[in-house]
Automatic annotation (TrEMBL):
It comes from Streptomyces asiaticus subsp. ignotus. Residues 44-270 form the Endonuclease/exonuclease/phosphatase domain. GO terms for molecular function: endonuclease activity. This is Endonuclease/exonuclease/phosphatase family protein. Residues 1-34 form the signal peptide. Keywords: Endonuclease, Hydrolase, Nuclease, Signal. Coiled coil: none annotated.
Length: 285
């Protein structure tokens, strides 16, 4: 278990202070109404292909601009590098967090020797970027077929306007459906058979009718059939033909919207998905 709640930058602190001042000026009755009423959370999933385009042109700032344009509270990322030569030895989750003014957590599913002497160990996995404090996070390895890439489940507990939300990110095996079924079953074990205030996102490398996805949607919702329009295809980004990137909230979270973001299809080889979810009102309010 890792504790993660870095302090916001000065610019963000001043902006927050200005917002609090405006709220106070509106009167305490307005504050009470906002606190006790429904609240929403804007979430997304994005396989960033280590910051490279489908033509393998590296441009991490392009990825940041896509995330910025989605105006999300929290996003789960897949195929994230730390200290790889192919991505300029950048600590990508930290760089994106700083660039976007968001907290971050990273789950290293690969942890390998450095590619050059004196460099940090190179890591590869999934990440969470959040505008809300991250109270804690864990990364748990998922079932693995020998010789395949290690996959994991990154879980971050967020403080979303005073409500705890469990935000989980994964990236299932791309070429073995039986391995994906075992990975999905393990995810259900980790999240629980009746999870609450939970959102699972990720590149699941399978479509909605497959057994591995049904294992997950037996206990979680799927924002696309509930709030999306059209086919929802996310892969590949230039010629989308399959919906393999998912936002799966627990049953107590109601999807209000769901969109595939197509504004910049060459930022990665996947298209991101974004949804606004209505959170239940906390007990006692």
């Amino acid at each position: 278990m890792n504790q993660l709640n870095p302090a916001p930058s000065r610019r963000r602190f001043l902006a927050a202070a200005a917002g609090l001042g405006a709220t106070a000026a509106a009167g305490t009755s307005g504050v009470a109404a906002a606190a006790s009423g429904p609240r929403s959370l804007r979430v997304a999933t994005f396989n960033i292909h280590h910051g490279a385009s489908p033509a393998d042109v590296l441009d991490l700032d392009r990825v940041a601009r896509v995330i910025q344009a989605m105006r999300v509270d929290v996003v789960g990322l897949q195929e994230v590098d730390r200290f790889w030569k192919r991505s300029g030895f950048v600590d990508q989750p930290a760089w994106l967090g700083e660039r976007l003014g968001m907290r971050h957590a990273f789950g290293a599913n690969l942890d390998l020797d450095p590619e050059e002497p004196g460099r940090p160990r190179r890591q590869y996995g999934t990440a969470v970027l959040s505008r809300w404090p991250i109270r804690s996070w864990t990364n748990t390895p998922l079932p693995l077929v020998p010789g395949h890439e290690q996959r994991g489940l990154l879980r971050a507990t967020l403080d979303a306007r005073g409500a705890c939300v469990d935000f989980a990110v994964t990236h299932l095996q791309h070429d073995d459906s039986q391995e994906r079924e075992r990975q999905s079953a393990r995810i259900v074990e980790l999240l629980g058979s009746s999870p609450g205030r939970t959102i699972l996102v990720g590149d699941l490398n399978a479509t909605s009718e497959t057994p591995e996805i049904r294992t997950l949607t037996d206990v979680l919702g799927d924002v696309w059939p509930q709030a999306g329009t059209g086919d929802g295809f996310t892969y590949d980004s230039v010629n989308p033909h399959a919906r393999i990137d998912f936002l799966l909230p627990s049953r107590d979270l109601r999807p209000l919207t769901a969109q595939v973001c197509t504004a910049d299809p060459e930022a990665s080889d996947h298209l991101p998905v974004v949804s606004e979810l209505l959170l239940p009102v906390p007990h006692g309010r």
